[in-house]
Amino acid sequence: MALTADVVIIGGGVIGASIAHHLTARGMREVVVIDKSFVASGATGKSSACVRQHYSTVETCRMIRYALDFFERFEELTGGGSCGFRRTGYLLGVDERMRPPMEISVALQRGAGIDTRLVSPDEMREIEPRLQTEDWVAGCYEPDSGYCNPVETAHGFARAARARGARFLEDTEALGILTEGDRVTGVSTSRGPIHAPRVVNAAGLWGARVGAMVGLEIPISVCRHKISIVSWPEAAAGPHPMVYDFVTNIYTRPELGGHILVGGLEPEEALDLADPDRYREGVSLDESTEALSRVSRRFPVLEEGRIARGYAGCFDVTPDWHPILDRVGPDGQLRGRGLLRPRLQALAGGGPDDGRPHHRRPRGPSRPRHLSALALRRGQAHPRHLRRLADVLRRRRSAARGLRIGGPPRRCRTGRCVRSSGRAGTTRRAGPSCRG
C-alpha cells in the first residue's frame, strides 16, 4: 500500500532533518523524510560543522543569528536533543588586499546585530598567543561562534521530529517526482510511491539530480574537500578559537582528543569536481603533508605536530556561493540547497530571524522573510548578473576538464569565485573567499 503524507523531504542530512523538526514543531504531522542511505550519511557526516557568523549578505547574517541562538538552546528547543555545540570564538586574519572587503562585511554583520569587531594583529595574539601574525594586517573576532557535532545535530533534529510524528525512511532512494499536470503528487521511491502534495528537495550533493526529475536545471557543483586532523605537541596543547586564515588559505578549529582540524580555503578546491557516489574519500600523504605545512606557518608550534588522520568529504556550491531557497518546478515542489558545505551552515538551525536586535528576539523561531535574494532565478531581473554566474560555473567545469578558457579575467562581484588566467589548469583568487 502506498504511503501518504503532507510533505515528503528528500534528504536525511542536517538540512532535511531540520526542516522536518521545524514543520512538526509548527503542527504538521504527516511529514516523511527519505534518504538513499541513512541519516547524516552524505555531506553532513563529514562536515567540519563550524558555526561562524562571517557572511556577506543580510539574508545569511540573519540565518546564522537564528542558527547560533538555536544551537545554544538546542536541548530546550528540541525536547532533549543534543548538537554538541562548543563555543570557541572565531578569528579571521587577512592581508592588505582583503582588508577592505572584510571591513565592509564586518560593518554589515554588526548592522544585523552580530557581535563581531575588528582586531589588530597584536589583539589577535592576545586572543590566541600561539598564532604567528606577521603577515596579517587586520582581522575580526566573534566571541560567540563555535562548532557542533554534525551527526549529533542531524540525529537531534530527527529524534525531535519523529517524536512529533514524522517518519524517517532510510535506504529509500528517490527515483522520480510524481506529477499530475502542473502539480506535484508525490515521490516514486525504491520502496514504492509516497503520495504528497508537497516535496522538499534537501538532497544536498544530489540536489541537482532531484531537480532534473522535473526538468529543473539547478546550478550546483559538487566539490571534494580535504580535512586533516593534526595532533598538538603535548606542551602546546590547549583550547583555541576557530581560525580562518586568508593568507595561507586554511581554516582550523579544535578537535577532540588534543587535536586541531585543518581544512582548505583555496578557490581552486572548487575546481575539484566530484561524483558524490564515487569520489576519493581518503587524503593522500602529499595532501596531509601540505596541510601540516600550512597550519605550521600559522601555528609555529605545530612544526612539532603530527598528522593523526585525514578524510575527504564533498560540498555543494552555487555559482555565487549563496544558498537556494525557493518554490520552483511543478506546484508543490520546494528547493532548499547550497546550504550545507563541509562547514555547517546557517539553515541547519531552521531559518532566518527578523533582523531585530539580539536581546529583543522572540524566544523561538521567527517567520522567514525577504528571501528573494535566495531564489533560484534571483538573477532574472539582472541579466548581466545571471550571465556572470553562468560564466563562473562554465569556467569551473572547463578548468576541471583541463580545457583552455579564452577571454580576459573577470572579477566576481561576490568575491568568492576564481578566475582563469587563460592557461589550462591555472587559476588565481578573484577576491575574498568566504567559503567556510
Please describe what this structure looks like.
- By secondary structure, the protein is α/β, with parallel strands linked by helices.
- The chain folds into three domains: 3-81 and 149-220 and 320-374, FAD/NAD(P)-binding domain (3-Layer(bba) Sandwich), CATH 3.50.50.60; 221-238 and 263-317, no CATH class; 383-429, no CATH class.
- The protein has nine helices and 23 strands.
- Strand 12 and strand 13 form a beta hairpin.
- The chain starts with a strand and ends in a 7-residue tail after the last strand.
**Average pLDDT:** 83
What is the overall shape?
Answer: globular
Look at the helices and sheets and give the structural class: alpha/beta
Largest sheet descriptor: 8 strands, mixed
CATH topology group of the largest domain: FAD/NAD(P)-binding domain
Broad CATH class of the largest domain: Alpha Beta
The number of domains: 3
**CATH homology superfamily of the largest domain:** FAD/NAD(P)-binding domain
- Low-confidence blocks of residues: 337-369, 380-387, 400-436
Our estimate of the beta-strand percent is 15-25%
Q: Treating each run of at least 4 consecutive H or I residues as one helix, how many helices?
A: 9
CATH architectural name of the largest domain: 3-Layer(bba) Sandwich
- The main sheet orders its strands as 7-8-6-16-17-18-15-19
Question: Rg, please?
Answer: 21 Å
The tally of strands reads: 23
